[in-house]
Amino acid sequence: MISWKNLDELKAFEALKAAKRVDLVSVMSGESGARRVAEYRVPMAEGLVYSYAAKAVDGDLLQALKALAEEAQLADKYEQLLNGEVINTGEKRLVLHQLTRGQQAGDVIADGVNKREFYVAQQEKAAAFARKVHAGEILNEAGEKFTTVVQIGIGGSDLGPRAMYLALEQWAKRSGCQKMEARFISNVDPDDAAGVLKGIDAARALFVLVSKSGTTLETLTNESFVKDALGKAGLDSSKHMVAVTSETSPLASSSDYLEAFFMDDYIGGRYSSTSCVGGVILSLAFGPEVFARFLNGAAAADALAKEPDPLKNAAMLDALIGVYERNVLGYPTTAVLPYSQALSRFPAHLQQLDMESNGKSVNRFGEPVNYATGPVIFGEPGTNGQHSFYQLLHQGTDITPLQFVGFRQNQTGMDVNIQGSTSQQKLCANVAAQIMAFACGKKDDNPNKTFAGGRPSSIITGDQLTPETLGALLAHFENKVMFQGFCWNINSFDQEGVQLGKVLAKRVLAHDTDGALKAYSDLLEI
Amino acid sequence: MISWKNLDELKAFEALKAAKRVDLVSVMSGESGARRVAEYRVPMAEGLVYSYAAKAVDGDLLQALKALAEEAQLADKYEQLLNGEVINTGEKRLVLHQLTRGQQAGDVIADGVNKREFYVAQQEKAAAFARKVHAGEILNEAGEKFTTVVQIGIGGSDLGPRAMYLALEQWAKRSGCQKMEARFISNVDPDDAAGVLKGIDAARALFVLVSKSGTTLETLTNESFVKDALGKAGLDSSKHMVAVTSETSPLASSSDYLEAFFMDDYIGGRYSSTSCVGGVILSLAFGPEVFARFLNGAAAADALAKEPDPLKNAAMLDALIGVYERNVLGYPTTAVLPYSQALSRFPAHLQQLDMESNGKSVNRFGEPVNYATGPVIFGEPGTNGQHSFYQLLHQGTDITPLQFVGFRQNQTGMDVNIQGSTSQQKLCANVAAQIMAFACGKKDDNPNKTFAGGRPSSIITGDQLTPETLGALLAHFENKVMFQGFCWNINSFDQEGVQLGKVLAKRVLAHDTDGALKAYSDLLEI
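Output (structure tokens, whole complex):
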């Protein structure tokens, strides 16, 4: 029997608060530190490893976290989600993004449809379309092959697919499976679309219009912008556009598009990279086989997330440690720091995934909660961040928990050996060094050169960033965010906080304003 | 007589803490809100306006902030900096980045050199070089013109120049002054350099190697990577590279470079966009005249920052309100939200500028401080962020102060009118709407649809993002950060927090490790 309780109603949370704190400087020093690195790790999917030695936990705290996982029924709640319960209570919807990449529970029938079959059919449609484009069976008006694919979408229709494309672009080029270049238009600022169009040959570009509702202001505006530009170039936009939308949207059966691919209300935008929202562009860019491998990685991570023991379930443990840091230690932010240039926009995706899911002040029943929920998430790739904001992370007055990611091999296979080491070795040496510098710090007679340490981090390591490991990494964080939402007893799958701004913006455009809103509109001469 | 006191030693700070809090929902509603928007603004340089109506201040609080500015001697300390005092106490250095864009005080003579003349001479050298490249007087081995310029640098040698390039790229293309495309290599991850090189014609590329010390690991490694690639392509790297460095660096007189341009220890990396660090690449990309206009904008902002009354000095007021939010209201983060796609990497630059400058725990004398210093800074352009992390900003459990930026006109002049408004109008309508949604919120019977409001923001507005307004914007934030450092009595111009990681990384690469550091090195197979 599932019981949805607030975090502060759980006995295990009281016990967690009462548990003795761990002195990270002490436990990570000397042989104790080496033992922790050997022991405090959980195998993830696709050969990845979650290592949490540099988190401020010990055996007692881990037991307290395990008790919290049990009392909060994390595994049972995930099972309910997989079985098609109405987990998104705000919008009274199922939450089915895991179904886009593999069946982790029984069939889910909703609205009279087997949802797994529906998602698979759409993926197959996308694959077939991509193969025709690659084979030259779908051509532009001049009978030429398409060379570029441009996604028009915003939020989850942009950040995830963009981050995934960038994550695999160099890998695909080296592997010989890059089929088309991809670009992205998202901002309603017309200079975004104008800049992208300047940089491509529009005559040989396919545009993927992504809007679940078919009513997203930015996306429809950018569609018009692109159609306008295509028209001025003498091109027939209906020969250059496909739509990704819901079956009930106005875009679904329009003759404006070469083809339409469907998703539904059970897949939130920020969880949609493994649906057709990511599938159409990634299949066009890299081929459907690569997209399928990406889904396999995500499915493997979803399967492991069912394990009820958090010490064997990286996503669950990651979530629990995060709750401890947020609600017991009181840290307001978390930094995501991938030591991989290919993951340059992965932090921006996680920023949406986490902050939009868990930035809530009411529980799933709409009652205010009395504790902190989702933290602010930010990050940039290392080593770049080291030369930027790490100063504050090391010596600032607040503590920021850190999430590192690192791979033993790079993607392009190109490297140079300078001063006895390769660039890839230097990259890895830096992340290892940073973990220890943050954890243990350094005493110095000069207080300005002193590092207090005690700054917790975890690292996810793997051999290489590939379609499979990227899928596993993506699903790890999705599942982590889900488990944290369960702990906080919030609905991680709606986003009511985006509505008010939309309503007011419409009023501004309709000149239906007064007071300060009118004054700001005047200031901006709207 | 300047007195360097900690914030909590100032009477004005005690008074600020005791001042009555402002209820933002109340004061921003109705006619009161409209009055505030009309009154609570400060003219900035180049036609920009700093509007702080939606900050939680009122007449009494503004007087308290003014008293704080006086007691903390903010204007006097800036004057000292301009006069060449040793403001960077940690490294015992002058702070002279303002001198790169105009003389705001008397001559500064250091090391026997008139520093203004020195910086100007380097800028003229960069301008002359750029003109020769543009005129075809400097050509590649095959006698062809260079078409692309690639900056190799990291941290301040990357983030600022990259953000400035992106900020002006579309403007320059439309204005007909784009001379060369620019690219950037920063990360020691070899896939960064490999990816950039794949995307350009190296035979027609000029590389700008930027390292003040001439010893930055990432930059020298990437230089080797590029030289290796040029060599394999049968190209003579010494015909493709210039250096930006200090006169005492090993790069200064090397025959490996076509030319060397100099900066010095009085310009910190994160303050170096207006020195040759930004000057060489921006002059090559857009022409020296555009770079000069950018400097003029910064100089105009520097001049206004001398005003001692914070109600007439936007940088100072912005700084003071930030201190109030950080040290009285207790907010740990600040979001930077430019409604301009051209400013896509401006938040990443400000993240370094602010967090590396003010993420400190000791005062300028090396004594620990008992109050919070620099906040975590993060951000993405609007409207993109609205569909991402704004959910947490609106309805999360913590409050994040917001810094908006918006322009009345876009850069490319391309736009479409859809449903009665242009994209640019939609962009501006959204930022106006967001300010009000954050400030006033909205009551609703459904708590899940309730917005508490009370979330403070300011906005900087202007007609258009141009070289001048960009310079003014950049200098505004530099000067804001400086004034906050003065308030906190910290040294905003060193970065000792980056050193420990460097030392440990070297030990990893030398296999001189034990304990957990060795264990992490083994995990990553270094």
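Chain A has 18 helices and 15 strands.
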